[in-house]
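How it folds:
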Amino acid sequence: MPRQIFHANAAWVHSQRGVSLVIVLMILVIVSIVGVSGIQISMMGERSARNDRDAQIAWQAGEAALLDAEFDIEGQPSTSSTKRNTVFALGKTDTSKFVSGCGTSGQSQGLCALNITGKAAWLTVDFTATGNSAPTTAFGTFTGRDFPSGAKGLQPAKPPRYVIEAIPDPELARTAKPSDMKYIYRITAMGFGPNAETQAVLQTLYRN
C-alpha cells in the first residue's frame, strides 16, 4: 500500500510541473506580444513627431518666402543689387512683366499673369522645379538675402520658392482707367522640410 501512495504522489507532482511549464510559456508569449506592441507604438510616435517637425520646418520656410516676396515688391533691402521694385511701383505696375504661365527669366521670373477664365497660375506651376528657367522665384533671387538649406540636420532640403500674381484692385476695377489702375499682389510660396517631399504651400495678398 505505501508504494502505491508513493507512485500516485509522484505522478501528481510530475503533472503539476507540466502545467507550470505551460503557464510559464504562456506568460512569456504574452509578455513578448506586449513588448513588441510597445516598441511599435513607440516607433509610430517617433515617426509622428518627426513628420510634425518636418512639416513645421516646411511651414516656416514658406513663411520666410512670403516675407521675401514682400521685400521683393518693396525693393528691400536697399543694398540688393538685383531688386526689381520698379515692376511693382505704386500706380505704375509694369503688367508686361507678368507672363501667362509665369515668367522663367529676367525680371519676369516668378511673375504670373492673372488667369480669369481657367486655373490660377499658382495651381498649375511646378514649385519643385529649380534652375534659371524655373517658373518660380527662389528665396533671395531679387533681395540678395540668404536662406540656409541643404545641409544635414534640421535645415530645409532647399530654399523656398514663390510666385506673384497681379490682381486689379477690386475697389478701382470698375471705375478707374487702365492707366490709373492699381494692383494688389497674390503671393503663393512653397517651403520644404528636411525631406524635399515634405512641402507646405502658403498664400497671402499684399498691397503696397
Q: What stands out?
A: The longest helix spans residues 2-74. The chain has a mean pLDDT of 85. The beta strands are 111-112, 137-138, 161-168, 183-192, 199-206. The two ends are 111 Å apart (CA to CA).
